[in-house]
Amino acid sequence: MPSVPKWLGDTLEKLSSKYYHAVTVTDVTYLNESLKKVRFEGDIKSIAFTPGQVVEFRVTDTDYRHYTPSVFDTKQKACEVIFYLHGRGIGSMWAEALEEGQQLKLIGPGGKLAYRSEFPVHLVFGDETSVGLAHCIANECERSGSQFKGLLEFAPENISWEIGTDDRTTVVRASMDSPAKRALEVLESWQDIYGDKVGFYLTGRAKSIQRVRGYLLEKGVPRKHIQTEPYWAEGKRGL
Question: 13 is in which domain, residue-wise?
Fold first, then answer.
């Protein structure tokens, strides 16, 4: 639901109030100049959340945006989201303006991705918009005793980012003209990921997801092992 008329948004909030949860911004931390970690606390104790799912915020009267929590702790009644401040849209401007004390409505959770405990290895592919998901899946792997691998393609100016998943995440340079080019080279070198033990979470740029998914299928990875959720695509708003 990227955009709806204001009257429809107001109506949905009234009719679907059980999916709207009152939260307050209790902490703001900048991991670097473009990654902002925000902690929300509030009415989420009864929410059934599966790592990998997204939550939604109404960022203007007419616009909504989805974000993947890096942490979702119902016992602490808190979740955290790592926002990528790229400065190119309504969602980014909304996230940049978030500050402690603000009261908001968190919607959801939902989405197509969900951590699948049957796999002993979990591989997250994505880009700057996928840092929160990488943290979320890595945390769940640590809790459950599974192995985590990350593969993120960043713009050249972001390669030096410290993103907090240590040596479990490989970062490569993104190419706008050749989506996932360097990522596919890395995947080719990871010969141990093509068996039945790995669950794949493909996120970020739609064109890169298509390339990686096609490559994995060519390698014989079963379709049911691959989950996809594009976070952005050229020419489209509010995925």
Answer: 6-110
For residue 239, being part of any structural domain is answered with: no
191 burial class (0-12, 13-18, 19+ CB within 10 angstroms)?
exposed
Neighbour-count burial for 124-161, b at 16+ CB within 10 Å, e otherwise? bbbbbbbbbbbbbbbbbbeeeebebbbbbbbeeebeeb
Residue 81 to residue 38: CA distance in whole angstroms: 5
Contact 189, 162 (CB under 8 A): no
Q: What is the CATH number of the domain that holds 183?
A: 3.40.50.80
pLDDT tens per residue, range 34-43: 999 999 999 8
The mean pLDDT of 144-163, rounded to a whole number, is: 90
Tell whether 98 and 139 lie within a shared domain: no
Q: Give Cβ neighbours of residue 23 (< 8 Å, ≥ 6 apart).
A: 40, 41, 42, 43, 44, 79, 103, 104, 105, 106
Write a three-state SS string for 58-82. Answer: ECCCCEEEEECEEEEECCCCEEEEE
Note whether 49 and 14 are same-domain residues: yes
pLDDT digits (tens, 9 = 90+) for 59-93: 999 899 999 999 999 999 999 999 999 877 898 99
Helix, strand or coil for residue 106? strand
What's the pLDDT at 233?
86
